[in-house]
Amino acid sequence: MSPFDHLHLEIPTSKKPRIVIIGGGFAGIQLVKSLKNSNFQIVLLDRHNYHTFQPLLYQVATAGLEPDSIAGALRQLFEKHKDFYFRMARVTGIDPEKKHVKTLIGDLKYDLLVIANGSKTNYFGDQEMFEKTFPMKQVPQALDLRSHLLQNFEQTVLSNEEEEKDRLTNFVIVGGGPTGVEVAGALGELKKHVLPKDYPDIDFDIMNLHLIDAGPRLLAGMSEKSSKKATKYLEAFDVNVRLNTMLKSYDGKDVVLSDGTTIRSKTVIWAAGVTGNIVDGLPKESLKGGRIVVDEYNRVNGTQDIFAVGDIAGMYSEEFPKGHPMVAPVAIQQATNVARNLGKKDAKAWKSFKYKDKGSMATVGRNKAVVDLPKFHFGGFFAWLVWMFVHLMSIVGFRNRLVILTNWLWNYMTYDRGTRLIIRTFVRNKHYKSGDTL
Amino acid sequence: MSPFDHLHLEIPTSKKPRIVIIGGGFAGIQLVKSLKNSNFQIVLLDRHNYHTFQPLLYQVATAGLEPDSIAGALRQLFEKHKDFYFRMARVTGIDPEKKHVKTLIGDLKYDLLVIANGSKTNYFGDQEMFEKTFPMKQVPQALDLRSHLLQNFEQTVLSNEEEEKDRLTNFVIVGGGPTGVEVAGALGELKKHVLPKDYPDIDFDIMNLHLIDAGPRLLAGMSEKSSKKATKYLEAFDVNVRLNTMLKSYDGKDVVLSDGTTIRSKTVIWAAGVTGNIVDGLPKESLKGGRIVVDEYNRVNGTQDIFAVGDIAGMYSEEFPKGHPMVAPVAIQQATNVARNLGKKDAKAWKSFKYKDKGSMATVGRNKAVVDLPKFHFGGFFAWLVWMFVHLMSIVGFRNRLVILTNWLWNYMTYDRGTRLIIRTFVRNKHYKSGDTL
Q1: Cβ of B49 and A79 within 8 Å?
Q2: Which of A1, A4, A144, A198 is best to mutate for the B interface (most B CBs within 10 A)?
Q3: Which end of chain A is more exposed for a tag (fewer CB within 10 A), N or C?
Q4: Fold classification of A18-47+89-121+275-349 (topology level)
Q5: Dihedral angle of Cα B223, B225, B227, B231, to the nearest 10 degrees
């Protein structure tokens, strides 16, 4: 007997056709917003009851923010929507013939389906990495990492063995994209400004941060200028940037790199990439490169009534042979376009999707960030202000903004991190399946 | 091999005699504060790395606050103390002959020992209650309860069976002391102001709150007037107050009360009492009534160099035949007195402890509280303001005050609760040993 036997996924019928949206990420919530007061009944499914503002997840992992700053309860976001239903349910597959979404608590009929369930950590099939490294995609994962890294320092104080101390205080971050860079910068700040006050008995020279990337430069999606600046900023925070380097093996104690170097570390943070959360039941020809192939209207190849939006959607074109970048602005713009198209009675009035790249940015700790605008790059303190302003304005909900701003001001003025609490004791090898509700 | 084999509890020797303090609760942190710049080396041991402001724990459980509001990292509190050492360690016993504290990571020699490890949930030996009810003494427990109660409502929406819906939406709180009253009031507020907005498909008439107490009135430690007022306020929040009633049995589904009533409920909150966290190794004659018997200087019976302070200390006298109330003000005042006495070279200059009862209070949700001063009782809105002010001023750290105030203002103005996040999935019967680090 499953623990969910007494639960049933039933939604009241409506005169309006029903759109089922899988996933309450950036794409999903934008769809619900844009479809407010439309001629559809909207059902949103997510295995969590909250939306996660992933760009700031690394601040939860590094003791800067609590989850309530960056997560918003989905029901709360859409309290005023009519004919809208949220259900906390894990989708296990879809049946395009029957027009059913399958979940752990039963099936649900759709008229139109939007798959917006994003991406998950990509271990490239490496079971060892999956079991032994820390991912950074979900709130519980970030909280685990926070507890783990603080626990490491409590244990360092209690250790006499040099090797053990090395393993506890060395951190290896795999992947030099924005997440890897931002985590490395935040750890550098902790090393420089926060931890030495807490642990006067530790000589922080033993704490080493390594950011490794297989490619020739950091932030491959940004300009070369920004890559260089970010590298320089990270080095000022004592981060060892190791380019053209791959992680060869990791047994939970020692990292072996492709250049032969061995780094003792109990903490490897895996930010090497993401891959689409493919749903079971789609025709094979609609899957490519770990994403769901869609046309220029985000309609899934070979279907009429299924859309895929955001990270999961592979809209392959000459301009984007690998599909669009897996970032929030693409998800939001695609969702807006799909909602607009679905509002038209005549499919001839549909607009095809055009990505407006408004630029990209990454922060590298206190006072330092890089910003790429289409025709202009800049870095340093002003970039850092822009980074903060854009993130603050992008997050949903005035309460989140208020809490984040309060925390940022506090952290900035006091060189403090307010959430240095070890609440989730981390048990090695008791990792969760990626994508599990923890 | 234990996972802690590589860790050792060693503290640099000092010319000053060493005081080891067990527990970073109200008594423990007051001792460290009062002993600043004293002629002692201070070692503080706690199994958590943070101090918990327990009076507001119920707000974490009811989605009003995140843990960072009410918990403060212990290292951070004492950053500027000299010859002070914090170690995260679980004490397993003491050896008064050798003058050793025993922990999972080794023994530590003391010159003076202060036992300040407080109290734990008292199940009165009932294994069923221990396994099936929710305690409310620690941050992880409060977070579990928060996730569990929100999960209940997500499941209610998915259920067709009346009995099941009853079990998910009925809450039974056992114990009419301040914790029980405050949890019941907070749940009443959730029912009245918060949850109906989130769950328009649930008829909240089915949600029933029951507060049961074995005695003839609530808040037995307060005045009769306050008991009556609190009862009236709770009833206005739709709480069924059941006095002279005991919980007879609970199988995780149905509560049977001593008057024969059966209440369907998956959520029983156990706030029926606490008992001292007795440490192994003390002479038998020093234990009584679940506490450690101390003289008027808080010195443990039959010892010269061991003190017990706060909830754990039983200072039995004519005025307090059962010892002092197990509340924060007693702990703080005793700690202050012990620190003052230890500062005197001559034990003849020691002062005996005199409890100054400054009054007590309890809040019952929005705009409602009761306050007992030594010669004066009052309730209602003004009492509620006083309650907030006193709690805000009592909490350690300006950051905690700032975060709590921001949250309270927000919650008050918007009738909102910002932390409605289901982060720790609760697994029935996977309860922790009371007192475990979770």
Answers
A1: no
A2: A198
A3: N
A4: FAD/NAD(P)-binding domain (3.50.50)
A5: -170
State the smallest CA–CA distance between residue A253 and chain B in angstroms.
14
Contacts of B143 (CB under 8 A, 6+ apart): A423, B60, B61, B67, B423, B424
Q: Which candidate from B48, B197, B399 shows the least CB-CB separation from A418? A: B399
Task: Give the length of chain A.
Answer: 438
Closest chain B residue to the Cα of A400, Cα to Cα: B418
- Strand order of the β-sheet with A254-257 is A247-250, A254-257, A262-264
Give B-chain residues touching A155 at CB under 8 angstroms. Answer: 7
Residue B46: what are its φ and ψ, rounded to 5°? -150, 150
Q: Is the CB of B8 less than 8 angstroms away from the CB of A67?
A: no
**ipTM for the predicted complex:** 0.91
Q: How far is A304 from chain B, CA to nearest CA, in Å?
A: 30
Nearest to A68 among B6, B76, B418 (CB): B418
Tell me the pLDDT tens digit for each residue of B49-68.
999 999 999 999 999 999 99
CATH for the A127-272+366-414 domain, from 3.50.50.100, 3.20.20.20, 3.40.50.300, 3.40.47.40: 3.50.50.100
Per the CB < 8 Å rule, is A423 touching B140?
yes
Of B150, B159, B407, the CB nearest to A7: B159
> Catalytic site residues of A?
182
Q: Calculate the CA B263 to chain-centre distance.
A: 27
Q: Which residue has the tokens 């600043």?
A: B36
Kindly report, as residue ranges, where domains of CATH 3.50.50.100 are found in chain A. 127-272+366-414
Segments of chain B assigned to CATH 3.50.50.100: 127-272
Separation in Å, CA of B105 to nearest CA in chain A: 8
- Which one-letter amino acid corresponds to residue B245? T
Q: What is the CATH number assigned to the segment(s) B127-272? A: 3.50.50.100
Active site residue B66: no
Residues facing B373 on adjacent strands: B376
Give me the pLDDT at residue A7, please.
87
Answer yes or no: do B410 and A420 touch at CB < 8 A. Answer: no
Query: What are the DSSP E strand ranges found in A279-364?
Result: 287-288, 291-293, 306-308, 313-314, 360-363
End-to-end CA distance of chain B: 21
Q: Give the total residue count for chain B.
A: 438
Who among A105, A406, A425 is closest to B438 (CB)? A425
Check B10, B79, B182, B235 and give the catalytic one: B182
Residue A1 CB neighbour total at 10 angstroms: 5
| Mean pLDDT, chain B, whole residue set | 92
Question: What are the φ and ψ backbone dihedral angles of B183, each rounded to 5 degrees?
Answer: -65, -45
Kindly report the nearest CA distance between residue A80 and chain B, in angstroms: 9
Range list for CATH 3.50.50.60 in chain A: 18-47+89-121+275-349
Q: What is the pTM of this model?
A: 0.93
